[in-house]
Amino acid sequence: MFEKLGIVTNIWAAEIEKGARFDELMVEFGANGFKDMEVREGDYLRNSEFGQLIQELEIAMSVYTDAEFRTICDAVWTEQPYESKHPTLFEEIAAFTEKASGLTLSYARSHPWLSAPIDSNADTQRIIRAKKLAYLLCPERPRLRLVDLDTEGDIDASAAVANLKRYSGLLPDYPMIFAVENARQTATLTLKLAVAGEVKLTYDETNTYRGDGTAVNPPDEFWTAVKMSDLTSVHFKQKTEAGVLSEVADGFVNFRAIAEHLKTRHYTGDLLLENTPTAHSLQDALRSREYLLKC
Q1: Domains of the chain, CATH where assigned
Q2: What is the pTM of this model?
Q3: Of 192, 248, 197, nearest to 217 (Cα)?
Q4: CB-count burial class (<10 Å; 0-12, 13-18, 19+) for 154
Q5: Mean pLDDT of 210-234
Q6: CA angle 84, 87, 92 (to 5 degrees)
Q7: Is the dihedral of CA 253, 178, 269, 191 positive or negative?
Q8: DSSP 214
Q9: What's the whole-number mean pLDDT along residues 131-145?
């Protein structure tokens, strides 16, 4: 199971801050067997050469109809001819996709989906741009994940579910897996809202633990409630009293138990490593994979 471990790209934040290139890290990790990669939005990404390309692309999107943009995305990956008003931009994107050949890229970003939006139109446009980026990264299997790091206190379940259904209905000609992740809220509540909103769940058991090791949401409660068809991805990182570790080791999270749940229930989604960033993320990832394989 863990031999197919992938990564979330925010583990590269420390290296990118020191000048490492996003595409070179992508190629290096892919060559070491980490084939599934979730491109996580953040300052580290925006400050990279690939993030600057994304920002140019977001500006250019408005010039194309939805159908035109999808056609270009498909053509870039299949090396078919296409017409573009931004030839240099899409040549750079084509060079990136060539390096990403053999990898499965998805896209993730923070977004307050648990709250009713203050500006519905702006909220809609942010999700449309995110969906188009997710499609560009992998037209064969596009996936967009949202994590809400802003909403606090009591959750308006009806507003959260309405958001998810609205987001899912945007860009119907861009079929993709749409998912949310448990973060500040319990995994069981996030699962309940995801199912009601007819989207998938990305599960991170580490997020259920407080700094003292007690669980906000007992893992057994979650595993009793979840069906494997509800899950699209499972994230792996470890937490101790010192915080989230830079590589997977002993700590609060019982990886052997998670692996048993996934294996016996025939889980088919991906497994993604999300260590705390360091200047040697590949070594951290390799040691983490070795540890998990022993589970």
Answers
A1: 2-293 (3.20.20.150)
A2: 0.96
A3: 192
A4: exposed
A5: 96
A6: 125
A7: positive
A8: -
A9: 98
